[in-house]
Specification:
alpha/beta, globular
């Protein structure tokens, strides 16, 4: 399994385990600015039998040379059966071309699986066509499956790879019904000695919204909600701790904004980290702009609010929740309103624990499909829709960014020693990532402000 960030490691590792619960999992992390830390990997709770960093060119070259998971197998290694590509679209496309070149017309090769980490609310055609060519493209809901097939068929490409699925980190059963009422000012869950405060969780996102004013506004409203409801506990759930890398580098981390709040955080409001599932276990109301956490909460039966304060816009991703019954403003939440999700909408999104989504049945269907492909005596060569003929002005650039030539071969010098890096190399690499993060979070905003003078 190849992943390029913390969230995609979570999706890829859990997907691999659900597709093949008893198989060996070899984890490969794509080397880059978003390579996750050990804490971020451990937070997912999925242990890989092996784990190391590679570049895209090393990944492709390794398969050609028969490294762990190589089509021909390596000395003392079993042949890989399934490759899960848990990466951004451009990386998936580059890996598909690289693997196609490495495997050629060999009938015995691994099954290649890819998909999306969460809600697909932008770049639908772009992202899907970059993933075309995989044997299985997982769609997280009935709605997504229909949209994916429509895109592929619309360009005359095969849609046979589209396979209905569910986000692998959704619990297979919903949580127990909340006992704290519909959000009374002092409500909570449990009874007697076990009673706890009604808990509101604001699930923050690294890149939505992007500007300081909007991010400070959202944090300020969460703090205001805590002050208006002192009997409630308000948690601001953050994706990463200071210095860690995520899928998106945060220019304006909420930790930094929190230090500048007048009066600081009230006693009943705090920043929290950790596994989203653990946080949701004690959540009575989930508030977000458009985070995938909303789908996790809805699946568990947790009341979910998708904020309209900054508008309902494609750039924010909250337009995806039109018709959900979850769209609401902080003012309405302050007044005590608790959104009630539309059952039909939730079912269409694949997060209702009913029908094929009950008890993991949809996972079983995808598992059978992948197993059937693995058992075939021969598989056709990988054939992505994008080729030098269909996209001559686009594809070469995508491949070059990942160290591959237009034919999918590693560029000269792109493949280095594939062994574990020494202490010096690790130190230099971490320093470079730190410098990049510092530039994004400190230098870039200053330059931007100076440009506005």
């Amino acid at each position: 399994m190849l992943a390029d960030s913390d969230t995609r490691w979570k999706w890829g590792a859990l997907t691999a385990r659900r597709l093949a619960p008893h198989a060996r999992l070899d984890g490969l992390l794509l080397r880059g600015r978003a390579t996750p830390t050990r804490r971020q990997l451990a937070e997912v709770g999925v242990r890989a039998e092996s784990l190391r960093e590679v570049t895209a060119a090393e990944f492709v070259s390794g398969f050609a040379d028969g490294f762990p998971g190589g089509a021909t197998g390596g000395a003392g290694r079993e042949r890989c059966d399934v490759v899960v590509l848990a990466c951004v679209g451009g990386t998936v496309q580059a890996m598909l071309h690289g693997l196609a070149r490495a495997w050629g017309t060999s009938p015995r090769r691994p099954v290649v699986v890819t998909g999306y980490v969460g809600v697909v609310y932008e770049k639908l055609a772009d992202g899907l066509l970059l993933r075309h060519g995989a044997d299985v493209v997982l769609a997280n809901s009935p709605q997504d499956a229909a949209r994916f097939r429509e895109v592929y068929e619309g360009v005359g490409a095969s849609a046979d790879s589209v396979t209905e699925w569910a986000l692998p980190f959704l619990s297979e059963s919903t949580a127990e019904p909340r006992q704290g009422g519909a959000g009374g000012v002092g409500g909570g869950s449990g009874s007697g000695a076990e009673r706890r405060p009604f808990t509101v969780v604001f699930a923050a996102q690294p890149s939505v919204p992007e500007n300081r004013t909007d991010r400070a506004y959202l944090l300020g409203r969460a703090v205001r909600h805590a002050r208006l409801h002192p009997a409630r506990e308000v948690l601001v759930k953050l994706r990463s701790r200071p210095g860690e890398h995520t899928t998106h580098i945060e220019e304006l981390p909420y930790q930094k904004l929190a230090t500048r709040l007048a009066g600081g955080l009230p006693p009943n409001c705090r920043l929290v980290y950790g596994h989203m599932g653990d946080v949701l276990d004690r959540t009575d109301l989930l508030v977000t702009v458009s985070s995938t956490a909303a789908l996790e909460a809805l699946h568990r039966g947790v009341p979910t609010a998708v904020l309209t304060d900054l508008g309902i816009r494609e750039a924010l991703g909250n337009h995806h929740f039109l018709g959900s019954g979850c769209l609401v403003s902080w003012d309405r939440l302050d007044a005590g309103e608790i959104p009630e999700a539309d059952a039909d909408w939730v079912a269409c999104q694949g997060v209702a624990a009913v029908g094929p989504y009950a008890h993991g049945a949809v996972h079983d269907a995808a598992r059978r499909r992948v197993a059937g492909l693995v058992e075939r005596a021969a598989l056709p060569p990988l054939a992505p829709y994008y080729t030098p003929m269909t996209a001559p002005g686009y594809l070469p650039g995508v491949l070059a960014r990942h160290g591959l030539d237009p034919e999918g071969r590693p560029l000269p010098g792109a493949v280095r020693d594939q062994g574990e890096p020494g202490a010096l190399r690790r130190a230099v690499r971490e320093a470079a990532r730190g410098a990049y993060r510092h530039g994004v979070q400190r230098v870039a905003p200053v330059i931007r402000r100076l440009g506005e003078l």
